[in-house]
Design brief:
Blueprint: E1 8-11, H1 12-16, E2 22-31, E3 41-42, E4 50-51, E5 72-73, E6 78-80, E7 82-85, E8 101-103, E9 106-107, E10 126-136, E11 139-150, E12 157-160, E13 165-172, E14 179-180, E15 188-189, H2 194-198, H3 201-216, H4 231-240, E16 248-249, E17 251-252, E18 264-265, E19 271-273, H5 278-281
Parallel strand pairs: 1-13, 4-8
Antiparallel strand pairs: 1-15, 2-11, 3-7, 5-10, 6-9, 7-8, 10-11, 12-13, 12-19, 14-17, 16-18
């Protein structure tokens, strides 16, 4: 299946409702050299007098060389416009009497914009959040901060608080996900072999205690290997609220509508999104 080894199955319905969405921030920085010989400056580039221009989109930068906050960015966009004087080779910059300049602009990194995330209307989900100019030790610089909403996808990494980490093997449509006799569908399915190999007993206690806490509206102590939290006490509380004492339930296939053989452990557990995302790794 798609939850072999450490892989996980995620529900598309849960993701559409905002599960594990995060915002990625990146800061682009450029500075002007302290030497005045090259006359570096931030500006909108002129195709008639500027050499070495990239095969990119320069139309979004303003006269100050920066993109206005709130504007969306694509893969081929220039985010900081920077030029310097250029001269004849061997004669130095002072020989440049025509004032021709060379392009030293900064382009959006390809990893920040993913084609499949493109939205209707031409925006790729990456936008400028903040721009600023400054000076430090007689060196002028500018910064542009961008943001992008990251939606969970196949290959992203997640982990519980007990170190039960894994990557998404498949994002399954909500109507194909299994459900209990009460109609509850899981947001996440993991491989049961991950429990004995990593010996994350605390995750089992947290899942059962979380299930009980949802029914009673109380905070539950899930600290493993403590005198107050024992298997007997946790299973007793689960049975008192009407569940099977071990947290197992019968489930129905969302694809065939047939009842699965046996019972399945299902509970409430906190999972966290890690910084290891497929958009940053695939080029």
């Amino acid at each position: 299946g798609y939850n072999q080894e450490d892989s996980q199955i995620k529900s598309q319905g849960a993701i559409d409702r905002g599960l594990f969405r995060s915002v990625m921030h990146r800061t682009y920085k450029e500075q002007l050299k302290s030497s005045n010989a090259s006359e570096e400056r931030f500006e909108r580039l002129d195709e008639k007098t500027c050499h070495g221009m990239k095969h990119a989109n320069y139309r979004k930068i303003d006269a100050d060389g920066l993109v206005a906050p709130g504007r969306s960015l694509g893969k081929s966009d220039i985010i900081i416009g920077k030029t310097a004087l250029t001269g004849v080779i061997g004669q130095g910059i002072s020989s440049n009497r025509g004032g021709d300049r060379r392009d030293y602009s900064t382009q959006v990194k390809p990893s920040d914009v993913v084609e499949e995330d493109a939205r209707p209307g031409g925006t790729d989900g990456l936008s400028v959040e903040q721009t600023m100019f400054g000076q430090r030790e007689q060196t002028a610089f500018c910064k542009t901060k961008v943001r992008k909403t990251r939606i969970p996808k196949k290959g992203d990494k997640f982990s519980s608080r007990h170190g039960q980490k894994g990557v998404v093997g498949v994002v399954m449509a909500q109507h194909d996900m299994p459900f209990t006799l009460d109609g509850i569908q899981p947001d996440l399915i993991i491989n049961p072999h991950a429990i004995p190999s990593r010996m994350t007993i605390g995750q089992l206690l947290e899942s059962i205690s979380g299930k009980t806490g949802c029914m009673t509206g109380e905070f539950k102590d899930g600290t493993p290997f403590s005198k107050d939290v024992t298997r007997e006490e946790v299973t007793r509380q689960c049975h008192e609220v009407g569940f099977q004492s071990q947290g197992e339930e019968a489930m129905i296939s969302g694809m065939t509508g047939e009842l699965f053989e046996g019972t399945y452990f299902i509970g409430v557990c906190i999972y966290e999104r890690l910084k290891h995302m497929v958009d940053d790794k695939i080029r």
